[in-house]
Amino acid sequence: MGHDSRRLWEEWVATNIGGDDARRRNALDAVLQALAVGKSSTEAADAARLAVGAPAASVLRCRFCGSTPAVAMTVFEHNGYIVVFRTKTLKGPFCRSCGLYAWRKMTDTTLLRGWLGVISFVVAPLTALVNLVNRRKLAALPDPQAGTGLRSPSDPGPNLFKRPGVYVYAAMIAAGFVFYVLPLMRG
Ligand SMILES: [Zn+2]
Question: Is 56 in contact with 49 (CB distance < 8 Å)?
Fold first, then answer.
């Protein structure tokens, strides 16, 4: 490692770890050891915090692939089975790729057949709406950083408009309008 990067890490330790000389030396040693065996900068930073007993989990990692950055959020899916229904919740943190993968799959399922039932007819669109609002958190996230995860992030797959759910739901609403609302208005 060059002198420059050692100096940068000394500054990082001073800013992020702080404390007396011994504490900072311990943290720096942990960083240098981690880097020497090929760990990433994020892992080296975690090692430094661990060495001085500070919580290492200040960085959120994707629950699926371990990548950073990740955001804490929940994705919902609603399934109606005429009389009964089932709600699925998937809690993060997610990286952008894995989060979009789950978001697209679960929102599509909700729109595709989630509304099939008396209660579900109301709950499914609300579920899709909650997902839509929460999606902003994923959209604001940069792509997962290569090398920070334990495995490759999921391929998000085709977006919602290239899946059937949106169209099936729109067709269902249109059919409901034609067969129920229009006759009522005429009567
Ligand atoms: Zn991920």
Answer: yes
